[in-house]
């Protein structure tokens, strides 16, 4: 009798999990469709029907995959899909909000964003800092658009300073979210033991690679901060590293927009060459990360942490 009750309870729990996931998928689709209805951008207006059907098909495929992996008891896979659906809900709500308010039209253009920020008059500086902050935490806005608008509004030096304030505050927030929520979320998906083993394997290298990625403007700030929160990176190291790398990148990007225009062929050529150099530099760092890490440790006499077992043996 008890076994029957447990079986019924387990079945009801499985059904409720599937229904909840389907409901969350439907919420994401609903807000995406509501956002598309505004047809705020020319691209959306031109391909409205294709975007609607694509969104519906994508949600359907994701939900079918969830059900299949759930029935196959592939826990890590269907939990990962579930987390993806939660993220889709958040971004769908943001997408609907920026479409309904008309902000998406301003975010899509440097001139429109500049006019939007300058319309706030004396508080334009605060609005710009808030935009820089949100760019890291939630807004899907390329940093180059924000900086370009800031340079046009305030000039290179003030823009770099204001961007630095907003981006550092946003980076600290994202790191805290990654540290407090990200670890628990990944533990729930893959299991604590497996996650801890994986983090132990990359321990030490994550400092070097993540620091370089923060320094280069081509990598997404928000994702990097969340990943840093999940890594072995400590709070003091992150605060020092983010202050140094953001200071360098903010001033470099701001003055680059001021000195290297996109309106000339030579300006575009320089930007393409710089992007190629960034990709090459990052590839070389990844390829020789072990040697670079060993070189830095040898120069600064840094020793890796010993495992508990090794310490006990020495004792």
Describe this structure in words.
Residues 141-258 form the VTT domain. It is found in: Cell membrane. One of its GO terms (cellular component) is plasma membrane. The chain crosses the membrane at residues 15-38, 50-72, 78-104, 116-139, 145-165, 207-230, 237-257, 263-286. The protein has 16 helices and no strands. α1 packs parallel to α4 (75-100), α8 (143-154) runs antiparallel to α9 (156-190) and α9 (156-190) crosses α13. The protein is mostly helical and 315 residues long. 84% of the residues lie in helices and 0% in strands.
Sum this structure up briefly.
The chain has 315 residues and is mainly alpha-helical.
Structure keywords:
single chain, 315 residues, mainly alpha, 16 helices, 0% strand, globular, disordered C terminus
Largest sheet: none
Q: What is the percentage of strand-forming residues?
A: under 5%
Distance between the termini: 56 Å
Low-confidence sequence ranges = 300-315
The helix/strand class is mainly alpha
**What quaternary form is this?**
single chain
Annotation field: number of helices: 16
SSE succession: HHHHHHHHHHHHHHHH
* Mean pLDDT rating: 79
- What coarse outline follows from CA principal-axis ratios? globular
Share of helical residues = over 70%
User: Total strand count, please?
Assistant: 0
Rg result = 24 Å
